[in-house]
Amino acid sequence: MPTEVHKLAHTFAVANDVPACKSWAEKEMAATPVNIQAGFQASGIYPFNEEVFDDSDFAPSYVIARCLPDPSC
Q: Where do the domains of the chain lie?
């Protein structure tokens, strides 16, 4: 499995002309504890914030929120 992932990543990098060492270095610089904690904080996961989203954030899902038809009819 790791070999397949490595081959896929290499194929993607070659096809998109991404220097492997540059993309790896950028990823290493981005994955800092501060950035990781900021991601959890922005999403309201930690510290827990139940008010991070309001009702308007869920409005698109109301389009398909309807009762299922009664199968006994």
A: 16-63
